[in-house]
Amino acid sequence: MSIETKVIGHVLWATIDREKSLGALDIPHLESLVEMFRRAANDDTLRTIVLTGKGRAFCVGADIKVMDAMTDMQFAQAAELYQAMCREARALDKAVIAAVNGFALGGGLEVALMADIRVAARSAKLGLPDAELGFSPTGGLTYLLNHIVGASWALHLAMTAQILTAEESLRIGLVTEVVEDTDLEKFVLALAQRLAAYPPTGMKNIKRSFNMALESSLSAALTLEAEYDAACYRSPETRQALRNFIEARKKR
């Protein structure tokens, strides 16, 4: 198995452990990632999922040598697995963080964009070399990249195959934090544990409402916000968080 997982408190830490292949994905590895997200969805003890790579790469997408030998049916299966992974990750009622430790290229960038938050190591490189090989993106990238960086930068990256540094990715909003390589795991784990400590109903409804707002009108978003906020208020964890806040204020 090349997807290593470990549980740290309420955090699931998943590593694409294909260092020699720069995190390249074939059908078995794609199936493992899809199944990992499905298991996480059904595990109430997990509140945050972190996905990272090993060595020089987060993930460089398809294993080109394997892909070159695929039948049309196998290629379609691999493409559908990227689509399935996107559906699972975006529908997951838990925060997903991509710890981009190195190269995130092609399908690897697609995987990173499925996360809610992307934190990059300073040496990371992100981009879409698909055009150079005559491919167009999958895995929901056309939708996600447009919303994350805007249509102008999305088309620029897709058409030029330009590879961005971590700092350039931060400047256009492709990632939201850049940290030193040696600090990445510590920083992301602390962030994941902080999110996992928040009342889960609030985190679930934050993700749901923001994702649904991307596809709805302002009127629909206002209605949904009111419904979700009321559900948060009724949840035991939120009520306890309010009491904890009040008690903390009294001690100041």
Structural key phrases:
single chain, about 250 residues, alpha/beta, 2-enoyl-CoA Hydratase, Chain A, domain 1, Lyase 2-enoyl-coa Hydratase, Chain  A, domain 2, 2 domains, 6-stranded mixed sheet, 4-stranded mixed sheet, about 55% helix
Mean pLDDT: 92
Major beta sheet summary = 6 strands, mixed
The tally of beta strands, per DSSP, is 10
- Give the terminus-to-terminus CA distance: 51 Å
**Residue windows where pLDDT falls under 50 for at least 5 positions:** none
Give the helix level as a range of percent. Answer: 40-55%
Instruction: Give the number of domains.
Output: 2
CATH fold description of the largest domain: 2-enoyl-CoA Hydratase, Chain A, domain 1
Radius of gyration: 19 Å
| CATH homologous group name of the largest domain | 2-enoyl-CoA Hydratase, Chain A, domain 1
Strand order of the largest sheet: 1-2-3-5-7-10
Strand content: 15-25%
| Secondary-structure-derived class | alpha/beta
CATH architecture of the largest domain, by name, is Alpha-Beta Complex
Q: Can you count the helices?
A: 12
- Using the alpha-carbon principal axes, give the shape: globular
- Helix and strand pattern: EEHEEHHEEHEEHHHEHEHHHH
Instruction: Give the class-level CATH name of the largest domain.
Output: Alpha Beta
